[in-house]
């Protein structure tokens, strides 16, 4: 599910996106009263939200990607609260250090998703 709070260096292009595994985040309020999520500790490969994505990549299991209307990285209008983007495979995975405003660094796992070719053209 792509919705709400993308992480540092997440990207979305028409047939490919880079996103992160879930978990280990906390909500923080900035000085203007805005809310956002950031890592509270480093992610591990054994975390359920990370491990399941690694398993899908290793097994070459396609996944359905769902886009929520709070996702901020698209260049098109999201017409419904939740929209199915189609079938994707995870082609790459890696760990990145993510800078936190207090000067600490935590590990976040990133995944590259590629839209499968054998499906109807995308609605977007």
TrEMBL record:
Q: Which organism is it from?
A: Basidiobolus meristosporus CBS 931.73
User: Keywords assigned by UniProt?
Assistant: Nucleus
* Cell location: Nucleus
**Is Nucleus there in the keyword field?**
yes
Gene Ontology cellular component annotations, sorted alphabetically: nucleus
Give the matching InterPro entries: SRA_YDG (IPR003105)
Report the principal subcellular site.
Answer: nucleus
- Name of this chain's protein: YDG domain-containing protein
UniProt KW Nucleus keyword: yes
């Amino acid at each position: 599910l792509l919705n709400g709070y993308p992480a540092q260096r997440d990207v979305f292009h028409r047939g490919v996106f880079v996103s992160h595994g879930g978990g280990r985040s906390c909500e923080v309020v900035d000085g203007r009263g805005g809310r956002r999520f950031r890592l509270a500790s480093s992610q591990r490969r054994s975390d359920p939200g990370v491990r399941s994505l690694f398993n899908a990549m290793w097994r070459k299991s396609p996944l359905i990607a769902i886009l929520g209307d709070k996702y901020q990285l698209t260049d098109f209008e999201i017409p419904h609260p939740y929209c199915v983007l189609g079938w994707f495979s995870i082609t790459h995975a890696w760990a990145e250090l993510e800078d936190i405003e207090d000067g600490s660094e935590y590990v976040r796992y990133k995944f590259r998703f590629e839209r499968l070719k054998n499906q109807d053209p995308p609605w977007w």
